[in-house]
Amino acid sequence: MARAAASRVGRQEQLAWSVLKEAPAVIASRKELLILIAGTAWLLVVAAGMTMLWGYSTAPGIPGAPPHEWPRESRIRPSPDLATLILMAHPRCPCTRASIGELDRLMARVEGRLAAYVLFVTPMDAPAGWERTDLWRSAAAIPGVVVVRDADGAEARRFNSPTSGQVIVYDAAGKLRFSGGITPARGHAGDNLGLSEIVALVEGESPTAIATPVFGCSLLESQGS
Q1: Based on the domain organization, do 182 and 94 belong to the same domain?
Q2: Nearest 5 degrees, angle CA 78-CA 79-CA 83?
Q3: Mean pLDDT score, 23-50
Q4: Are the CB atoms for 210 and 197 separated by under 8 Å?
Q5: What's the whole-model pTM score?
Q6: 30: containing domain
Q7: Alpha carbon of 179 to those of 119, 129, 131, 142, 164: distances in Å?
Q8: 140 CB contacts (<8 Å, ≥6 apart)?
Q9: Quick count: other Cβ atoms within 10 Å of Cβ 199?
Q10: CA neighbor of 193 nearest in space, from 172, 203, 179
Q11: Which of 5, 66, 90, 152 has most Cβ atoms within 10 angstroms of its Cβ?
């Protein structure tokens, strides 16, 4: 009996020592599992965030529907000899910075063969100089571009343009030739169909598209921000 009891005690001690030896490995494996779970959760959160960001950057604003002929009531005078471009802009829309940059690139390519205006929509109750942001200064620095304050969005309404970054081009006869954006995505500069089509128009070629998506902030709803 005593010998059997001692044997059992011995086996129990061996089992206890075995468990103690394996404990660090078990704890380590649990830590690894927790790290793996946490890492996977982090990757899923990052992927979801990138998907949302990409969806936002590629979501166009409301397209404009400008009149087929230059509106007579507009205070902006089109060129009688050249095609005339208008870019509607919210002075505080970060997305429009890319549009201003693409306009700079466009004007360098057409070399004086296109008249251009940038209209900055400004609330009636805005303080003096509210619209004179870095976007205003960047647009004013582009050779051949005239910058205009559009009080209360009057011109934006005449040209039926609700989104910042909307570009409209009329030929010398006052006929609408292009309406859309000149960036590939929201806040992103780079090669895009809109800019290529305008260059083709200026060079007398037949465009393949007369409308492209516009990426920017709402002109008339967010102008007070």
Answers
A1: yes
A2: 95
A3: 53
A4: yes
A5: 0.73
A6: 1-57
A7: 15, 29, 24, 21, 13
A8: 147
A9: 17
A10: 179
A11: 90
* pLDDT per residue as tens digits for the range 45-64: 434 434 343 344 457 789 89
Structure tokens at 30: 């649990």
* DSSP per-residue string spanning 108-151: HHHTTSEEEEEEEEE-TTPPTTTT-SHHHHHHHTSTTEEEEEEE
User: Counting beta carbons within 10 angstroms of the beta carbon of residue 159, is it exposed (0 to 12), middle (13 to 18) or buried (19 or more)?
Assistant: buried
Residue 75 in any domain: the answer is: no
Record the tokens describing residue 153, joined without a space: 């969005």
Q: Tally Cβ neighbours within 10 Å of residue 5.
A: 9
How far apart, in whole angstroms, are the C-alpha atoms of residue 187 and residue 96?
A: 7
DSSP conformation letters of 153-211 = THHHHHTT--BTT-EEEE-TTSBEEEEE-SSSBTTB-S--HHHHHHHHHHTTPPPS-SB
Diameter over CA atoms, the chain? 119
100-125 in b/e burial notation, b at 16+ Cβ within 10 A?
Answer: bbbbbebbeebeeebbbbbbbbbeee
Q: Are residues 126 and 190 in the same domain?
A: yes
Q: What is the pLDDT of the chain when averaged over all its residues? A: 82
